[in-house]
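Q: Hi! First time asking for a complex rather than a single chain. Here are the components, and I think there are two in total. Is that enough to go on?
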Amino acid sequence: MTKSSIKIRSTIKGDEAKVKCLIKHPMESGLRKNKKTKKLIPAKFIQEVVCKHNDKTVMTAQWNGTVSTNPYMVFYLTGVKAGDMIKISWVDNTGQNDSTEEVMPTPKKKKK
Amino acid sequence: MNQNRRILLKSTLTAGATGLAISAGLLTPKSVLAAWPKAAFEAKDANTALKAALGSSNVIESKDIKLKAPKIAENGASVTVTVTSKIVNTESISIIIAENNMPLAATFNLSKTTKGTVTTRVKIGKSSDVTAVVKAEGKLYSTSRNVKVTIGGCGG
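A: Yes, that's all I need. Here is the structure of the assembled complex.
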């Protein structure tokens, strides 16, 4: 299997989860020019990101080419238990897509 | 002589492969991306983008939204923006960069179990007002902040 373009790191506190997500993608807006050939670099950016928590869609994001290269995002979910499934998938304007699943980790014990 | 032939073969092979990949990719987007509001994202000014994306451009300024962005961004290609909404039933959070060619950068649609905080990184072409627009119970609330950019993120 090829390596996924999505990295997810999540932490749980109580029933609240912080989901950090980093996607490897050029996010070409279509407005940039190739300096040598003076031609526009064709647009290639993620249009939609969907996050599912145990098959329930909890977040959908629509993006433009204005989101930075290798986009990073953080969001918070409530009602999450350790062992729950988080699935993030994206589709870009050329139809390319990818998805990753991650199991919620057990919360770290507090240090005294 | 023989080596030249190798190189030629290789280049034609890779060109063929990428061509295939593109044509295969082109078959899917329309069906998958029905929800992507093209008019909103391609709008050239913030008001038309808002109207197309959220149905209205009547925005109420609110202090319940916190927008965290740097005052001066050294590199406009990647500016971290955090939006925190304390408004009840926040349905969506949009980030608008007024001076960009395409002002609407992103819209996050949240469910009831998602908290109203989103962090992401955006490109900012030149010094501009960054606005966070929150939709809650059919109304739009916003807050903005100016970000100065020393090196632009869009274009050369």
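A: The CA atoms of residues 101 and 117 of chain B lie 26 Å apart. Let me know if you'd like any chain examined more closely.
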